[in-house]
Amino acid sequence: MKDVVRYVRDHQVDNLLARIGAASTTRAQMLEDMRHRLQVLGIEVTIDPVNGTLKLPAGGLFLAGQADPTPRGRETIRKLGAVLAATLPCYGVLQASSGPARECPPVDLYSTLSSAYVEGHTDVVPIAASDSRFHDNWDLSAARAIETYKLLRAAEPSLQELRNREGDALLGVSGYAETRPATQDPDRLQATVRDLDRRIEVRLTMAANETAVREAVEALNQQLAEVSDLVP
To answer: pTM for the complete prediction?
Structure first.
């Protein structure tokens, strides 16, 4: 049995397994890359590598009951668009045209980006005004995501050309109403908490790079076949 353990160590089988499951590592690297680029532009964001999200600065993005971003929110979203356009093509994303040259960090593409969702959120107060164009907070959160998407696309037209490895559009939108609070504060009716809940997040989902994974699996199977000769 010691011979088997020694073989696994010497032939770095554990490294092969780690590369097969590299999706979370690649996504975390992408989020950190985006966070750093936004920081340079004066925008402080919060990233969650486990869930694959980037949260725009809390507070001041939207007024209550409104889907159009505030002037401050519009400027933040434009800067986000510039960062997305510069970052996403570095992570296995296809473009309709080659586009300008980019400075990309070294990436182990055992997994590639499958989608980038612009997620809209609302505070806990329900839509009540009879003259509102929104039926409820679900409608409002989706509208916020759509308006953000439109701003991103207007600021950086190349974003609408981005495709994943299957050829599907990379950017999408989703709305969660008030179902995903921004804080753990139980009193979500506080003005400050409500402002934090009215927000936009970007969620990244990954897909395995099938060619790279297949090559790693074949190499692993070959090594395991050799290991079997060491087992009595």
So the answer is: 0.79
